[in-house]
UniProtKB/TrEMBL annotation:
UniProt entry keywords in alphabetical sequence: ATP-binding, Nucleotide-binding
EC number: 5.6.2.4
Name of protein: DNA 3'-5' helicase
Sequence ranges assigned to domain Helicase C-terminal in this UniProt record: 221-374
Any Gene Ontology CC annotation: chromosome
Xref: InterPro entries: DEAD/DEAH_box_helicase_dom, Helicase_ATP-bd, Helicase_C-like, P-loop_NTPase
One BP term from GO: double-strand break repair via homologous recombination
Flavoprotein among keywords: no
Biased composition range(s): Basic residues: 359-370
GO molecular function, a single term: 3'-5' DNA helicase activity
Alphabetized PROSITE patterns for the sequence: HELICASE_ATP_BIND_1, HELICASE_CTER
Domain of life (superkingdom): Eukaryota
Amino acid sequence: MFPTPSLETPSLADVRDRGQECFGKRPCHWQIKIAIAFLKCDRDIVCIAGTGMGKTMTFWLPLLFQPSGIQIVVTPLNQLAINAETATWENFRAIEDLKYCAVIVSPEQLMKPGGEFKKLLIKPEFTSRIIGFVFDEAHCITSWGDFRPEYKELQRLRYILPCQVPFMIASATLTPETLTEVKKRLHMRSENLLTIHMSTDRPNIQLGIRKIKYMLSTYADLGFLIPLGWKEGDPLPPKFLIFFDNIQEAIAAAKFLQSRLPAHLRHKIKWFNSDMTTKFKEEEVEALVSGDTMGFCTTESFRLGMDVSNICLVLQWRATCSLSTIWQRWGRAVRDRNLQSTAILFAEREYFDDVRQEKQHRKEAKKHKAGNSQAQAPAASAKRRRIDSMPSEATSAPVAWEDRAVGGVNHEDEARRDGSRDKNESDGSDDKENAGNQVTGGGGREVMAVSEKVLREMMKPSSEGQTWNARKKRKVLDPAMDCLINANFRAGFQCRRKVFHIHFNNASSGEKPVTYADATVTASNSIACRQ
């Protein structure tokens, strides 16, 4: 017995009214379209929408019209899903007896060889009740397959389930390339596919980049959160998250911030990571929500599925992650879209174009000096021979070649070593001929008009796919992250928000295009990118 649609598919108005009645929120048109597609059981679904926009509501709306149906959500979040702790015989019997209409499961439990869930998927009396399969945080299907191999096994589901069961992939960070790969792995039916592509932009989050000034191990750049000499009665920082890609760094940074508070207040700043028990993490999240905790120094553990409405400051420590990852992390900010927030990347100095330019100037000056010294050496020797053959009274002092070399430095270049550029100086982004034309930007400055296609190519990983520098023993900077860090100097960008716009192909969302000018994104509420 195959899944069948409702006897009468509800209208848009029916879904809107029922959603308002049951959830207290009026569903948007795109959410209603997804619900109806599930109920018709005639197509797969792609849902790309920004963090906090309401993708989760689309999972549950169909259940309002098929109360005897089952919606299965596959999620990477072990604390939300059936996992090793909750995969009990009693729970699986309850699922089989149709006591639950919503089942949230991890890939590990879903695809476990000989597991209880796989046994359910071959029973017609169970599969006939399935409304659909939702793959939440679908970008993880490609990015997490190496360390969670069950993600690779999800491709076998299409051969296990009845062909009419619709699949839906949902994410806020699906690039065109990732989307293509995910659809391929899940064998999604491209000839009959509903694609909902909303803009992933979060205009209520101001974006900023900061150059790390102090030694990485001191975390002194984070000291602005708790200024030296802070005392009770002084302003506290807003509710914050600081993301790290290393547990030990997160702990060390938390201890640094704690040390700047009086002893009886140090519990207000915590570290939060995967080494903690589920119960402990739940308690800590509750403390953050209530305000007893000011902020976390955290890792990936807080990125997915956490919904705290009023986090007003989200920081990323070091450029050690991908652009998609940092957008997910920054998306933890102000889930209440009526609030404003700030997101900042603290990046290593060597990743900034002005620092690279300064280093290149020094290298060229040193090379020029060395070249002059070598070129003059034979001439000096010949002159010495001539001088030695002259009478002693005719001798003169030798020329100071090293002084000439120093004096020959272009002082105009020297003056620009702070990173500023002459208007005719290339910034390295015009290597592609005929990429665009010169146009005048704000303040009379000239900027290069570069097509989004060219910019997207600039942001792609190298063909070699190198992610690790063995000599320096660290990750290679993601090209898209490089563009984000230097967007305000790069031709074609001039705004960091535009980097995300291109990376996630927001132009395909069908919404009114965002206008970029003067390094400012002109959105519905005109929020500027902080330089």
